[in-house]
Amino acid sequence: MAIEIAQVDAFTDTAFRGNPAAVCFPESSKDAAWMQDVAREMNLAETAFLQSRRDGPGHYDLRWFTPTVEVDLCGHATLASAHVLWETGRLGAQETARFHTRSGTLTAERRGEWIELDFPSLPQEPVTPPAGVPRALGVTLTYVGRNRFDYLVEIGSEAVLRGLRPDFALLRQVEGRGVIVTSRSDDPRYDFLSRYFAPSCGIDEDSVTGSSHCALAPYWARKLGRLEMTAYQASARGGVVRVRIEGDRVRLGGKAVTVLKGELV
Q: In terms of Cα–Cα distance, which of 67, 18, 62, 32 is closest to 46?
């Protein structure tokens, strides 16, 4: 039986920008090896797999795979999944999507043209970085912290951030999922910028990373004294993420556009 699949550009309203994710709807239960094979075939930063649950309307099991590994939390593929649920009529425009994941229950709601995700806050603590991080980045680090997933590094300026050319072979040896690099923004439209590198997960640079903003939001909220901010991830494709702190949760806002629909045969 053919299996429905779509490709969605997340955290953008323009095709071929933002971060592409595949969204797959297997009709029956599939094992992790099959999902990993599909994700490798799609060769995108993430492929999301959804199966409806009996809990009620809008409840779905959700898993995320890069081309090489399954991950515990992914923002852009969750945004893409919610977008497809509403676009295909699986959910009504005012219904909430509830995703049951390795990181607990995550929700998505429509906010006009935007989709808002409810994710856990992932604050970091200051650490001494392993030698591979400053060596791989090749710039002066003004701050280094770490949470259970990633290192978070602040550097001195937007120009330095945009000019980074990391040594991915060195970063691949660093323990953890990846390295978030951030700076203040020179553009008044944005409060801060970031880039995200995760070569150990098969992604040298991710285009727009929702889960990294679960660490960036509390970090910049403390620095700027604001609970609501607008961020830009300065990858080659680029994307905009709205963030809002609510206790131990982070609301992530973004747009999405479908660029491809098809079937796995």
A: 67
Q: Is the pLDDT of residue 16 over 90?
A: yes
Q: Where do the domains of the chain lie, and which CATH numbers do they carry? A: 3-116+252-264 (3.10.310.10), 125-246 (3.10.310.10)
Report residue 183 as tokens: 């700076």
Strand stretches in the chain, DSSP E: 3-10, 19-25, 46-52, 59-65, 70-71, 97-101, 104-111, 114-120, 125-126, 141-146, 150-155, 178-184, 192-198, 203-206, 228-233, 239-246, 249-254, 256-264
| Residue that the structure tokens 């699949």 belong to | 5
Rg of the Cα atoms in the chain:
18
β-bridge pairing 256-264 and 178-184:
unpaired
Q: Is 46 a catalytic residue?
A: yes
The active-site residue, picked from 46, 116, 154, 205, is 46
Query: 169 is written with which tokens?
Result: 């072979």
Residue 126 token pair: 């200051």
Whether residue 208 contacts residue 241, with contact meaning beta carbons closer than 8 Å, is answered with: yes
Residues in CB range of 140: below 8 A, 6 or more apart:
155, 156
What is the DSSP code (8-state) at residue 103? Answer: T
3-state secondary structure 131-175: CHHHHHHCCCEEEEEECCCEEEEEECCHHHHHCCCCCHHHHCCCC
* Spatial distance between the Cα atoms of 13 and 23, rounded to a whole number of angstroms: 17
Tell me, yes or no, if the pTM score tops 0.85: yes
Query: Which tens digits make up the pLDDT trace of 71-96?
Result: 999 999 999 999 999 999 999 999 99
CA separation for the pair 208, 211 (Å, rounded): 9
